[in-house]
Amino acid sequence: MEQNLFVYNTLSRKKEKFEPLNPPHVGMYVCGPTVYSDAHMGNTRTYISFDLIFRYLSHIGYKVRYVRNITDAGHLEGDAGDEGEDKIAKKAKLAQLEPMEIVQKYTVGFHEVMQIFNTLPPSIEPTATGHIIEQIEMVKEILAKGYAYEVDGSIYFDVEKYNQTQDYTILTGRNLDDLLVNTRTLGGQDDKHGKLDFALWIKAKPEHLMKWPSPWGIGFPGWHLECSAMSSKYLGHQFDIHGGGLDLAPTHHTNEIAQNVAACGKNPAKYWLHTNMLTVNGQKMSKSLGNSFLPHELISGNNKILSKGYSPMTVRFFMLQAHYRSTLDFGNEAMEASEKGFKRLMNAFSLLEGLKPSGSNEIEIQPLIDRCYAAMNDDFNSPVLIAELFEGTRIINSVHDGKMKINAENLQLLKTMMNTFVLDILGLKSEQAANDDLPKIMDMIIALRNEAKVNHDYATSDKIRNGLQQIGFKLNDSKEGTNWSKI
Length: 487
Ligand code: AMP
Ligand code: ZN
Hints:
Layout: E1 6-9, E2 14-17, E3 25-30, H1 41-59, E4 63-68, H2 87-95, H3 99-116, H4 132-144, E5 148-151, E6 154-157, H5 159-165, H6 176-182, E7 198-203, E8 219-221, H7 223-235, E9 239-245, H8 249-264, E10 269-275, E11 278-280, E12 283-284, H9 295-300, H10 312-320, E13 328-330, H11 332-352, H12 366-377, H13 382-400, H14 408-425, H15 433-454, H16 458-470, E14 473-478, E15 481-486
Parallel strand pairs: 3-4, 3-9, 9-10, 11-13
Antiparallel strand pairs: 1-2, 5-6, 6-7, 7-8, 11-12, 14-15
This protein binds adenosine monophosphate (AMP) and zinc ion (ZN).
């Protein structure tokens, strides 16, 4: 925590020294996925970026409460997310399933993807449907403060009125007049008074599936409201970091700020952090543009734009080789370069354990460690950190080849540095380990089965044999003992 960490705050458009409101605690809210389809690689990039930030803040000693929600209702299709059909309900109708079956399916899938890329789970993962009461309370507060109005069972936020005393575009610094010119005019059917007004609570049509009673009749909450209600419930009216993809800043986050300020007079977060987009041929990866691909496609290579598959850690490494605020363009050549780079790093890592110190010393590691921290303290600059780790790799290889001498103290520093930055902070792991360790694990299982047989516990010994069979391993008993093979 003695670190001199600087983070880029979208709100001020500059790097600021990170000074949490209530150290050593840090409250961080990140907008989670809308669980109506598989998370694509663009979404995954955003969550890997915040995983890096979460890991680093924790590493330097902060006690981070990381809240990342699941949007399981209320996200409609329109640009501002408050017009048209509910994304989840639409999918449910198409698949002839309950909306909650869709929610369950894609929440489980999202968690699997997060695990595959070794991202740590958040501290709290609240769902929109689990916080309807809190959202209704917040609508009531905004109404009471005079910043919202009701039309036929729906409640809208009054942007024009808000902007008379507050700065509606404070987050992006955009010009409100330009915004008004570029927003389409209200249709005759529209209940909104102003073009920029957005729904806090939406009256449900009879055929609408996910709906709840409220003081204004049966309806459902607006997408922006969910995050305002859940962040203040778990992190208070003001917390340290609010994050999400850059595409969320102009509408979703702008509206979140307006709601929080209207309800309780405070911008909810001190630092607003935004991750930039994963692009394909320079275009944002997005489901609606049809240029998105899924994690399992990237791993298997089963997509027309991929020349082959890449391992999950290669993908994570590829993502971390770009700074989170730069766009990252996906390309097969770049992926292949990352594959080589990741292998080089992990090869050195595996040599490190076997390195022996010598009496003399030709290299000081502490300056390198300082540079690693300096990179991360400069707005989580993972590409610069990785460049420093390659310097570590070069040293490891030189010592291993006998071209450089390192004493015990520096060797220990080198080991600590590589473990800390590669495993704990970048969240990379060796993908070789599982295979290398397999023979040892199988020997242990065979020994347990032998023990069961010796004890005449044939139920257990059969259970082990059948269990292994089911996951693709065959045991072969002979006079010499038992060996195993893959089926
Ligand atoms: P969604 O499920 O659409 O609400 O998106 C989940 C998160 O992924 C949001 O924070 C988005 O900003 C982010 N996101 C969407 N597309 C991309 C992309 N191409 N690159 C990086 N992040 C993205
Ligand atoms: Zn949100």
